[in-house]
Amino acid sequence: MVSGPEHPVTVPLLERETELAAAAQAVDALCADAPAGGVLVCSGEAGLGKTALLSEIRRLAAGRCAV
Fold it and tell me: From first to last of its 67 residues, what are the pLDDT tens digits of the chain?
């Protein structure tokens, strides 16, 4: 399987509705007409899906703002 910007790997996010809603709100704020800037912290133990969550956040922001 090839991954990278041209070939993103899509991973289903299970039970991440709360995190995705918060991330979507953060992306909306960062992509606003007058963004204030900010930091989104994603932490946790290995294997909990941080990379998959951050990939989804990047997808949400694609074409709207730099993440």
Answer: 445 555 555 667 888 899 999 999 988 888 888 877 778 888 999 998 899 999 998 998 898 887 7
Instruction: Report how far Cα 42 is from the mean position of its chain's Cα atoms.
Output: 10
Q: Which two tokens stand for residue 35?
A: 């963004």
Residue pair 7/40 in contact (Cβ under 8 Å)? The answer is no
Torsion of CA 8, 49, 31, 60, to 10 degrees: 40
Indicate the Cα dihedral angle 52, 50, 62, 25, nearest 10°.
Answer: 120
